[in-house]
Structure formats: C-alpha cells, structure tokens
UniProtKB/TrEMBL annotation:
The keyword Iron-sulfur does not apply. One of its GO terms (molecular function) is metal ion binding. The chain crosses the membrane at residues 34-55, 67-84, 99-120. Na(+) binds at residues 75, 78. InterPro entries: FluC. Na(+) is not transported, but it plays an essential structural role and its presence is essential for fluoride channel function. PANTHER family: FLUORIDE EXPORT PROTEIN 1-RELATED. Keywords: Cell inner membrane, Cell membrane, Ion channel, Ion transport, Membrane, Metal-binding, Sodium, Transmembrane, Transmembrane helix, Transport. The gene is fluC. GO terms for biological process: cellular detoxification of fluoride. Belongs to the fluoride channel Fluc/FEX (TC 1.A.43) family. It is a multi-pass membrane protein. This is Fluoride-specific ion channel FluC. It comes from Flavobacterium enshiense DK69. Fluoride-specific ion channel. Important for reducing fluoride concentration in the cell, thus reducing its toxicity.
Length: 123
C-alpha cells in the first residue's frame, strides 16, 4: 500500500509540473509545433536517465524511491498519449512534415536526453 501511495504522490507532482510546463511554454512560444509536450517528454527522459544513474551510483536499492521518482514523478510528467493525439491531429490537418519532424525529434532527442541524464549522473 505504501508503494502505491508513493507512486500516486509522485504522479500527482509530475502531472502538476507538466501542467505548469505547458502553461509556461504556451505563454512564451508560438504554437506551430507541439512544444509543450515535446519539452515535457524530453525533460522527463533526461530526468529518468539522471534518476536511474544516481540511484545506481549511490547504490540506493530501496525500490520505493525508484517507484516514486521513475514510475510516479516521471510517469506523471511525461505523456505519450498526448504525443500520440497531437500527431494524429497533425496528420488530420495534413501537416505531415510537422508530424514526422515531431515523431523523429521526440525519439532521437528523447533517447539522447536519457543518455545525457545517465552521463551527468556519473560525474
């Protein structure tokens, strides 16, 4: 039960931070591209890499911390479902180039961000 509560708290914090990220991005950038979801997902990828690396580096074996940070917080912060629906909307609007750019950048930059987080955790 404690694990479920930690995941729920982490997820709530991550979801609220994603909402605040979306408000900030939408306020400061023109929306010709789904920047808010892209930024949240990339930052989430970076954080997952960083958290995993730090947990390993400091030999933190307690699974509840991993559930709180990775499953809860990062899971709540990132959003694959919004990414998918935004791409469907782009395809329906015949914005194929933007959709493929969004998909490609999300995969390449997301993997790079996760790797970057892992590398920074080793410093």
């Amino acid at each position: 039960m404690r694990t479920i509560l930690l995941i729920a708290i982490g997820g709530a914090l991550g979801s609220v931070l994603r909402y605040l990220t979306t408000l900030f991005i939408n306020k400061h950038f023109q929306l010709y591209f789904p920047y808010a979801t892209f930024v949240a997902n990339i930052l989430g990828c970076f954080l997952i890499g960083l958290f995993l690396g730090l947990l390993e580096k400091h030999d933190v074996a307690h699974p509840n911390l991993k559930f709180f940070l990775i499953t809860g917080f990062c899971g709540g912060y990132t959003t694959f479902s919004t990414f998918s629906s935004e791409n469907i909307s782009l395809f329906q609007a015949n914005q194929y180039g933007t959709a493929f750019l969004y998909i490609g950048l999300s995969v390449v930059v997301g993997l790079t961000a996760t790797w970057g987080g892992l590398m920074i955790s080793k410093l």
